[in-house]
Design goal:
GO terms for molecular function: nucleic acid binding. InterPro entries: RNaseH_sf, Transposase-MT_Hybrid, Transposase_1. Pfam families: Transposase_1. This is Histone-lysine N-methyltransferase SETMAR. This protein is mainly alpha-helical. The chain folds into 2 domains: about 70 residues; about 70 residues, Nucleotidyltransferase, domain 5 (2-Layer Sandwich), CATH 3.30.420.10. The protein contains 5 helices and no strands. The longest helix has 20 residues. It starts with 14 loop residues before the first helix and ends in an 8-residue tail after the last helix.
Length: about 140
Amino acid sequence: MLYWKLLSQDTTVTASNYTHQLKKPAQTTRENQPRSENVHPLHDNDRPHVAKETQQTLVNLGWETVSHSLYSPDLALSSYHLFQPLKQFLASKSFAKYEDPKLALSDFFDSQLPEFWAKGISDLPIRWVTVVDNLGDYIID
């Protein structure tokens, strides 16, 4: 499952609004996959979520965050699987209003087949091995 949200221009990400955002995919998972006991979010940033409120929310949800190497963008699904197709999709678009990028992102995400997401997830272990084999050096595809 992919969860994303564009924040308003004047919004700063805080532990409070971040934990509030975590509750939406948690609710969706409970409704759509009630037997899913193991949820392992993979955040696209390398900094651990250290705010006590965030850590407690993850514990309360029963989620174990998948950790990845510090400063290793090669392991973030967005970096190695999502950004190139998204860049190509957005290349011909222009945005006149603040809402336009949100609509374009929705169009892009809605147009992806389940196989697109499955491939990104299935490639993750291979990426981990490649990063380890390269001693953490950046991977050029």
